[in-house]
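residues and backbone:
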Amino acid sequence: MTEAAPGAMSAQATYVDALAVFDGVLAQVPPDQWAAPTPCDAWDVRMLVNHVVGEDRWVPPLVAGLTIAQVGDTLGGDLLGDDPQLAWDRARREAEGAVGSVPENHLVALSAGPTPLPEYLWQLAADHLVHAWDLATAIGTDLVFEDGLAAAVEQWFVAREDGYRQAGAIGPRAAVPDGADRQQRLLAAFGRRAADGSVGREPSRVS
């Protein structure tokens, strides 16, 4: 699986790296901050993590050829149980295994129709990276993206930003100062304002 944004990493490599970024932030969540507010409207820390775990729980059945309708509501509700870290570890491991077991030209049945697997992985990578920043902001931890990872997601998202915004998946593009770095530009494209943590709506799961 090698499809990549121009001059950037492959979709699979970007997704795996974004999983690692989220994992690193999740490991820092203090026991008393699961109910803390996040930059995502109406989500506390536990709800945000549940959303991301849900994204990865969707990967194996979709990659296996099931449709969203066939999966139904089996992955709704609380997916974290009594051990959010264990739930995340399982979801991450199974998602990585699923995407590594199929060829590059594999199609996934998303709500938008049959979608090449690399495109699905770019969507997931972007969502995990931005939500890792949301989670870090919620718990008061600074998160600096690795420049190559941020560049890959930024290059992929340029042609899709308007579509995300028209669908209501992200808020208005935030203003950035002259000389803003790549991370600031990427967060602004997703409606985040790195200076104060305010955002628009969260990216959708499988648009």
Q: What stands out?
A: The CA atoms of residues 177 and 184 lie 9 Å apart. The longest strand covers residues 107-110.
